[in-house]
Amino acid sequence: MWPDEVTEIFHHLSEESKQLLSPSSSTEKDGKILCTDPTGSRKCNGNDANSLSTHGFCPLPPGIGGQFGTVVLSDSIQNGNRSLLHKQKRKLKKDWDKVSTVLPNADLDTYTYYWLIVNTRSFYFEAPRATQKLSPEDCLVLCPFADYFNHAVEGCNVSFDDMGLTITSNRAFESEEEVFVTYGSHNNDFLLTEYGFILEENKWDTLLLDDLVLRPPMTRLQKERLDGVGYLGKYILDHEGVCWRTQVAIRTQTLDTRNWHKFVAGNDVDLEYNDQSKADSFINSLIQEYKAEADKALEGFQEGGKTFPAGARDVLIRRWTQIKVLLDLASKSLI
């Protein structure tokens, strides 16, 4: 069952956007969102509720919906196919293809409903006596009552053995105090997409910069060079700045090819120091573009946000505000 905030967002969107925001288009049964076309035969076009043509801004953060509204990207980048929501679509389609082959009379609506329950309430569990190594997707189990635990950045320890799952207190608790587990070191875009909530304080919160870093003027040859040394993609920003992978990618724009290879190899400390100011300026320009996206979204919610259900509007405003704070902190780290 989808949390209230996600359900409200889903109700508000056009049919095209429902195909974007869920593994398929949807129907409703007993107040629960059900997906009816995980094959993806009905394609999402640009006239959806996460596009400029509908609201004048993109209500979903780029890390969730895979789209920017104020930043011009090449079509090969801004297609949303790598977004968290589209990954969910692909996961459901993969599972449904297998189930429907074995059980041709299976009901898709019922399957999807239980698929969503398992997706949000399962625990990772490796069978102690398994005869073969399974993929992480095949190591999920349901544990009644244990799935009542809510998520926190730090929580009780969860372990498993031959007897099953064991949850051990990580500290002393007062009477009536809520006990948490942690679902993992996830940022708030992931938590909102996967579980339907965000944390007010999340030390693991990050933003993905791939779309901004990999757009032109970065060339195909520069991307091939990054790929050749294992630094293509996964460019992360947090409150302390950008990751080393991002620094390497940015240097394709600030250094010539010979010096870029020296930078990657770490053979010239002076080169890194002398180029840092130019690299920081480039990074800050990306941060300011992302901030403009956040400003546009928050302005859009202020001017036309009443068309959104209150719960959906509030959680998205909170998320965009968090994104602005994160970007401000990262920008200050460059000074």
Tell me what you see in this structure.
The structure is a single chain. By secondary structure, the chain is mainly alpha-helical. Helix content is 47%, strand content 11%. The protein contains 13 helices and 10 strands. Strands 6-5-7 form a 3-stranded mixed beta sheet, with no helix packed on it. It has a 3-stranded antiparallel beta sheet with strand order 8-9-10. It is globular, with a radius of gyration of 22 Å. The termini are far apart. The model is unreliable at 5-47 and 75-80 (pLDDT under 50).
How are the elements arranged and paired?
Layout: H1 4-12, H2 15-21, E1 26-29, E2 32-35, H3 52-55, H4 62-65, H5 84-102, H6 108-121, E3 123-124, E4 140-141, E5 150-161, E6 164-168, E7 180-181, H7 188-194, E8 207-208, H8 210-213, H9 220-228, E9 236-238, E10 241-242, H10 244-254, H11 257-265, H12 269-304, H13 310-332
Parallel strand pairs: 5-7
Antiparallel strand pairs: 1-2, 3-4, 5-6, 8-9, 9-10
Number of strands: 10
Total of DSSP H or I helical runs spanning 4+ residues = 13
Share of helix, binned: 40-55%
Q: Quick one: biggest sheet?
A: 3 strands, mixed
The first-to-last residue Cα distance is 45 Å
Order of helices and strands: HHEEHHHHEEEEEHEHHEEHHHH
Strand content: 5-15%
Give me the Rg, rounded.
22 Å
Low-confidence stretches: 5-47, 75-80
Output the structural class: mainly alpha
Strand order within the widest beta sheet: 6-5-7
Shape: globular
- Nearest-integer average pLDDT: 81
Seen as an oligomer or otherwise, the chain set is single chain
